[in-house]
Amino acid sequence: MSTTSSTSQETIVALATSPGANGAIAVIRLSGPDALLICNKVFKGKDLLKQESHTIHFGTIRDGEQIIDEVLVSLFIAPNSYTKENVVEISTHNSKYIIERVLSLLIRHGARAAKAGEFTLRAFLNGGLDLSQAEAVADLIASNSASSHQIAMQQMRGGFSNQLKQLREDLVHFASLIELELDFSEEDVEFANRDQLRVLIMKIHQVIAKLIRSFEQGNVLKNGVPVVIAGKPNVGKSTLLNALLNEERAIVSDIAGTTRDTIEDEINIHGVTFRFIDTAGIRHTEDVVEAIGVERTMAKMKQARLIIYLFDPTQDAIADVKQQIQEVEALNIPFVTIINKSDLLSEEQRASFAELSPIYISAKQQLGIEELKDELLNQVNLGNINTDDVIVTNIRHLEALQLTKQGLEKVLDGIDNPITSDFLAMDIRQALYHLGEITGTVTTDDLLENIFSKFCIGK
Ligand code: GDP
């Protein structure tokens, strides 16, 4: 499919609500020049062509004389709609049979079944959204925590694009001044003050670098903080995971080393998602199956942004604990030291571990779990995300930003080791090109196809 060839001459139709969901109502959406006309052919009630935009009408959908459903029809007349085209939303009763009948009826009367993401693609092509906003629509729909929702909402409302748009305009201004110099090349004039240009490029460079840095934070917020629960076999890792998840998901057993495979799961603490990776524990072992587990544990620990390291004070002497801590420290990843099985701990034993400033918990009796959760939030330091900050969460944006940054560095280099105006102009245009890729000022069919094919049909 060539994405951009979905000419807006065609009127498209799809189920906008989730297929197979249990709700009372389903919404079927039409978009395109003939949306009202097509709906009017099967709708009995008021003449839709004579109604105002943003009005709702009760009536029936009929196939010939047969009534298929009683519906509500909402009208959005171009350009005042999501796609900027005529849009009709038909709310039917949520029956698979009714939905199929209504869809095929509308198709029979001239609509075409929409492709994945085609409504949002049209919104983009018609200027209703820029590309990063369109992508945020997908993120918003997929968001499952307060923080991922906030980021997507912020991006959809244009936070990201606004910031880039201004920078881009300033840079375009300079590029055109430099290009003007080319017309006067005989006279050796400088319309674009090089010092001012350097200041502007450095300013843009700073903003871009900040956006690039925000990616790590953004990624964590969007996908969750990867946390590894580690420690020797039988220290209570599975029990802790269960306590945190409040469900019996990992296999708990008295036999050392039974949690052989890795299990991933998530919890949400004050809007931040933590992705737990339960592990087989670090233990030097000859057992082959177990060895795979140990290798995986090391690999997982390296992927983690935070490690919860568990000790069993009834098994481990302080010297052993200290040695394990050293091993974990070598990974250079933040970690929390946890003394588990505190229910079995005497005051004296407790005192012997005090110098490690651990958190004491009992995974089995669910003691100290809230304290641990607070510490997790503390460690990732994301508790108070400033939602006004623009955060990059999209790998495509990150790549474009990195290329823009490289481009800007080339321009700076060209100012400092003077190159001719035509080369400088070319370098600036190159940086602009990558900047434009983010918001969709510059697009290719491949890029659009790639983005919109990831949407579901009806979005
Ligand atoms: P893993 O190998 O580290 O995953 O350890 P498990 O979670 O399978 O626990 C090993 C054993 O320790 C099980 O018998 C658990 O019931 C027990 N256990 C775990 N946490 C606690 C705790 O806080 N207190 C006590 N008394 N026993 C615990």
Could you explain how this protein is built, in words?
This protein has 459 residues and is an alpha/beta fold. The protein folds into three domains: 3-129, Gyrase A, domain 2 (2-Layer Sandwich); 141-220 and 394-440, Four Helix Bundle (Hemerythrin (Met), subunit A); 224-380, Rossmann fold (3-Layer(aba) Sandwich). It is 46% helix and 16% strand. It is built from 15 helices and 13 strands. It has a seven-stranded mixed sheet with strand order 3-4-5-6-2-1-7. The longest helix has 30 residues, at 194-223. The two termini are 17 Å apart. 37% of the residues are buried. The structure holds guanosine-5'-diphosphate.
CATH class group of the largest domain: Alpha Beta
End-to-end gap: 17 Å
Instruction: Please provide the ordered H/E string of secondary-structure elements.
Output: EEHEEEEHEHHHHHEHEEHEHEHEHHHH
Mean pLDDT: 81
Could you say how many structural domains there are in total? 3
Give the biggest sheet. Answer: 7 strands, mixed
Shape: flat
How much helicity do the residues have? 40-55%
Widest sheet, order of strands: 3-4-5-6-2-1-7
Which spans of ≥5 residues are poorly predicted at pLDDT below 50?
1-6, 248-254, 259-263, 279-288
In CATH, what is the homologous superfamily of the largest domain?
P-loop containing nucleotide triphosphate hydrolases
